């Protein structure tokens, strides 16, 4: 028999030698056999699942073991029992142990993959889930909600599990407090590996939640200890604490966007955790809301997040708040924490007409703040007289407007034996240490399931040359693999009569100076499907062969929901003569699709009846949107009837990050005047969180419309030339920055949109370069 089964036999022999009761080990080969075995389980019994694929396996594991003789569900060989399709597991009873299961290639038919209850009356207590794997076990519909692990009952342990790749709506792991039997539960969640969770682009992407707003004042008494959170980037709240008296110790957060958030509930302890940002955008630390919170001995390095995702955030609250809103911070402390090269610490964050109550009777003491680039990382958004500051150390060049409680010190960073940069100084009273119990990638999860990234990057595969001709691109894509580069003939002409479906990362590019030309007879040339990403370089797209239909596009996302976030890069391409009918877009996206990045650079767009990109299909106004990072740089857009860009994020939800928009060094000429342009603007931006619009020429073009909503958006419209163009219309009650708006007639070199040597716009960019496109970029 295999090693795992032998281990069980040895354990049973030990138990049997001191217990006269008969104990059984039974091998189940299918669900029917498993169900029969469960009916007769006694303390000390074990069920072993046979190696193989268990498809559509809904397992209910119930029984009453004892502390000395638990009932066990395990596998013949770890990693060789795979639950696929419509599979899940429910536990009910006492002293149950589950180990070795792998869930992948499917999704739960219920609301949870693993649940510590059969129903609201029958749940598991004193039980354990260990060394199990849930890997990309997602419902194919992005907006269908489920959870991966739901924990109920009392005294349960969830440890050494490998949980990676949740992409659909729903928290990865929850602790439920919806019955009195699950309150004051004393659960322990430890040594789990929470692998990458991509940005969800909507609320509902937390990795761990304890309680809900309805149970905010109930004591959960859950311990979350020594877990490794690896790029769990679903939304603002990596962990959402929504109950009282929970403890978070020795966890590591590696390049995670968002924060450990004390959203509801009191008396939380956050002690000895490590937050590693490595300079990645939106990486954060701890956010305090509510009363009697304690944040001590935590180590933060390289965190860049701002506002609600700063390295440390103490919120403003709502006076006399209900438990499920923003309870003011009272009697809370953040002491003896270390911040190395972090960008933002905030006090009174979220201060507005509703959240008007500043923190009271709270403390920020004994902390070390070192930054070798930014002198003052503190943002004070409200009255801080209710916070006591004392014995905090800043680096030699550190500054703060806070009047007392800070002292400068000569601080040196020394790498310790664990690899962490530790601040040392004669003025440091308590030596900074990292607990030996801190989570690492190596000491969490299973020992037998790989933590290696499985994604394939664009431009990482082989190069495949493809001859010009009819549907040669369509055929070559069917033979391609993820990461491949499709090399087009210089000057070649390619006709597509069947839309090219992109279901893995692919690049299409022309080498040499003369671009290849792609014409297409379908309503789209490329369709990005789930799993696909696309890079287009040095190619001309000609719309003259396209069908006489309204609503064509060069690139379209799948009409169905896409679980996987995609990327789109367009560089040095030409798009022309897309006027066979109205509303001919370059990019058209569908609801339920989300791009991590859309980058359009060094390209030209001429004679187009639609838009470059209409990223506005998430119209439910719940905070959802279509793209995280949108970049338009060094492009010329001329004679476009639609808007160059429409970007929409509706609603007032504050749990997401983007969109982030950069529009830099472009020329927009005669844009937006088409009768079908419902936006009546050259660019329409709604709810965008970061707007950097700099160094552009708007010449004889419709106006720019911006509507600013919650989230304290950053708006910089700087050093742009706005000649004979519509107004810049900004609505909403948020702040914005518009400056150096020129009204100078641009003079271009003949046949181009490069400025003449006599132009007054030379040298007027924020980078001291010309406004508009940069020649020979």
UniProtKB/TrEMBL annotation:
Record-linked InterPro entries: Pectin_lyas_fold, Pectin_lyase_fold/virulence, PL-6
| Family annotation (Pfam families) | Chondroitinas_B (PF14592)
Keywords from UniProt, A to Z, are: Lyase
Give the CDD domains listed for this entry: PL-6 (cd14251)
Q: Does NADP appear among the keywords? A: no
User: What's the EC number here?
Assistant: 4.2.2.3
Q: Which GO terms describe its molecular function?
A: poly(beta-D-mannuronate) lyase activity
In its UniProt entry, what is this protein called? Poly(Beta-D-mannuronate) lyase
């Amino acid at each position: 028999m295999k090693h795992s089964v032998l281990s069980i036999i040895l354990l049973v022999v030990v138990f049997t030698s001191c217990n006269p009761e008969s104990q059984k080990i039974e091998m189940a080969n299918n669900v029917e056999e498993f169900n029969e075995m469960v009916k007769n389980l006694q303390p000390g019994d074990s069920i072993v699942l046979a190696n193989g694929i268990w498809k559509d396996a809904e397992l209910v594991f119930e029984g009453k073991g004892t502390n000395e003789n638990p009932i066990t569900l395990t596998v013949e060989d770890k990693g060789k029992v795979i639950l696929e399709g419509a599979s899940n597991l429910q536990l009910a009873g006492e002293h149950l142990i589950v180990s070795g299961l792998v869930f992948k290639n499917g999704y739960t038919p219920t609301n949870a993959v693993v649940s510590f209850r059969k129903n609201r009356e029958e749940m598991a207590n004193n039980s354990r889930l260990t060394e199990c794997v849930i890997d990309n076990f997602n419902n194919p519909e992005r907006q269908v909600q489920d959870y991966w692990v739901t924990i109920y009952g009392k005294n349960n342990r969830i440890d050494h599990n490998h949980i990676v790749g949740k992409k659909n709506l729903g928290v990865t792991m929850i602790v439920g407090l919806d019955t009195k039997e699950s309150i004051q539960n004393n659960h322990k969640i430890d040594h789990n590996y929470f692998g990458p969770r991509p940005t969800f682009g909507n609320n509902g992407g937390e990795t761990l939640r304890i309680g809900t707003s309805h149970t905010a004042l109930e004591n959960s008494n859950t311990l979350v200890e020594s877990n490794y959170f690896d790029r769990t980037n679903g939304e603002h709240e990596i962990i959402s604490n929504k109950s009282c008296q929970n403890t978070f110790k020795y966890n590591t957060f590696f390049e995670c966007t968002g924060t450990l958030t004390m959203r509801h509930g009191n008396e939380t302890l956050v002690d000895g955790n490590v937050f590693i940002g490595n300079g990645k955008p939106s990486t954060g630390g701890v956010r305090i809301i509510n009363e009697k919170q304690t944040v001590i001995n935590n180590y933060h390095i390289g965190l860049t997040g701002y506002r609600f995702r700063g390295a440390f955030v103490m919120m403003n609250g709502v006076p006399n708040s209900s438990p499920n809103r923003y309870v003011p911070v009272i009697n809370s402390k953040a002491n003896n924490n270390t911040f190395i090269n972090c960008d933002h610490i905030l006090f009174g964050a979220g201060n507005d007409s509703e959240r008007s109550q500043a923190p009271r009777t709270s403390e920020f003491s004994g902390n070390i703040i070192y930054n070798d680039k930014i002198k003052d990382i503190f943002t004070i958004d409200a009255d801080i007289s209710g916070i006591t500051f004392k014995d905090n150390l800043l680096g030699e060049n550190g500054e703060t407007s806070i009047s007392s409680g800070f002292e400068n010190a000569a601080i040196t960073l020394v790498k310790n034996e664990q690899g962490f940069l530790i601040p040392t100084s004669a003025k440091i009273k308590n030596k900074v240490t990292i607990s030996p119990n801190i989570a690492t990638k190596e000491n969490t999860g299973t020992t037998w399931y790989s933590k290696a990234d499985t994604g394939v990057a664009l431009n990482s595969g082989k190069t495949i040359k493809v001859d010009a001709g009819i549907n040669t691109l369509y055929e070559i894509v069917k033979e391609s693999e993820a990461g491949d580069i499709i090399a087009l003939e210089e000057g070649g002409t390619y006709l597509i009569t069947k839309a090219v479906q992109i279901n893995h990362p692919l690049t299409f590019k022309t080498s040499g100076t003369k671009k290849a030309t792609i014409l297409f007879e379908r309503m789209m040339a490329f369709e990005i499907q789930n799993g696909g990403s696309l890079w287009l370089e040095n190619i001309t797209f000609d719309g003259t062969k396209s069908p006489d239909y309204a609503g064509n596009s060069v690139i379209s996302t799948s009409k169905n929901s896409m679980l996987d976030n995609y990327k789109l890069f367009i560089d040095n391409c030409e798009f022309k003569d897309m006027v066979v009918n109205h509303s001919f877009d370059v990019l058209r996206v569908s609801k339920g699709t989300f791009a991590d990045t859309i980058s359009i650079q060094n390209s030209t767009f001429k004679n187009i009846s639609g838009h470059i990109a209409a990223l506005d299909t998430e119209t439910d106004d719940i905070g959802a949107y279509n793209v995280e990072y949108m970049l338009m740089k060094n492009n010329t857009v001329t004679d476009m009837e639609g808007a160059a860009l429409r970007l929409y994020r509706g609603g007032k939800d504050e749990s997401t990050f983007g969109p982030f928009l950069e529009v830099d060094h472009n020329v927009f000429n005669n844009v937006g005047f088409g009768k079908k342009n419902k936006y009546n603007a050259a660019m329409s931006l709604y709810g965008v969180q970061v707007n950097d619009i700099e160094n552009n020429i708007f010449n004889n073009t419709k106006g720019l419309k911006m509507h600013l909503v919650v989230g304290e958006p950053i708006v910089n419209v700087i050093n742009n030339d706005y000649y004979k163009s519509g107004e810049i219309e900004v609505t909403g009650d948020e702040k914005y920055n518009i400056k150096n708006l020129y009204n100078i007639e641009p003079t271009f070199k003949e046949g181009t949109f490069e400025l003449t040597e006599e132009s007054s716009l030379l040298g007027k960019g924020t980078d001291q370069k010309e406004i508009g496109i940069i020649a020979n970029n």
